[in-house]
């Protein structure tokens, strides 16, 4: 298992594996995805009705309905491998990071790109929407950045003195706090 995601109600669990299987468990019902990609990441929409998958070997992303009967959209735009994906809390946006050094936001319904962020030619290591979906927090090796999802404006940036890189950044549930992981066992 290389990625897993719970639905907001805890009733659905997605498991993605490197051999291309996407296992969806809902109560006592389970099934495999109709595609056989080598999956790297998976995200479940907040309403539990859509699934975004990222292929491990290619720059390939698909968005499916949870019945896996039809593919909704296939976003593009990254020029190198896509690394991670997450839905905004309101379910209207999808954010992707890629090896091309970009953090891109797509409309979750149409698959059309809404924003593309670059920061000092560094790879985005982590990213998270705030609870209102109005801001996107991102982390590169030594910095945190806060972006407006509406305008694309860089709202704030902070350089962090670390003994390692920032590997993870997230908002608290109320959006008032940010937590980061800076190397081994440091929060």
From TrEMBL:
InterPro entries: WD40/YVTN_repeat-like_dom_sf, WD40_repeat_dom_sf, WD40_rpt
Residue stretches of each WD repeat: 1-26, 75-116
PROSITE patterns reported in the protein's UniProt record: WD_REPEATS_2, WD_REPEATS_REGION
Keywords (A to Z) from UniProt: Repeat, WD repeat
Keyword match Repeat: yes
PANTHER family the UniProt entry points to: F-BOX AND WD REPEAT DOMAIN CONTAINING 7, WD40 REPEAT PROTEIN
Protein's recorded name: WD40 repeat-like protein
Organism: Aspergillus ellipticus CBS 707.79
Lineage: Eukaryota, Fungi, Dikarya, Ascomycota, Pezizomycotina
């Amino acid at each position: 298992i290389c990625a897993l995601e719970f639905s907001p109600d805890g009733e659905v669990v997605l498991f993605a594996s490197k051999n291309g299987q996407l296992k969806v468990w809902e109560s006592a019902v389970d099934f495999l995805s109709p595609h056989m990609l080598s999956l790297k990441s998976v995200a479940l929409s907040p309403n539990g009705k859509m699934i975004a998958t990222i292929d491990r070997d290619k720059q390939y992303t698909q968005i499916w309905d949870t019945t896996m009967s039809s593919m909704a959209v296939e976003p593009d735009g990254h020029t190198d491998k896509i690394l991670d994906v997450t839905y905004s809390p309101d379910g209207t946006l999808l954010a992707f990071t890629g090896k091309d050094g970009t953090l891109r936001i797509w409309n979750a319904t149409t698959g059309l790109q809404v924003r593309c962020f670059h920061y000092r030619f560094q790879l985005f290591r982590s990213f998270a929407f705030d609870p209102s979906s109005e801001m996107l927090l991102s982390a590169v090796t030594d910095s945190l950045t806060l972006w407006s999802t509406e305008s694309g404006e860089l709202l704030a940036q902070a350089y962090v003195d670390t003994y390692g890189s920032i590997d993870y950044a997230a908002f608290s549930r109320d959006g008032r706090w940010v937590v980061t992981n800076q190397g081994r066992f440091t929060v």
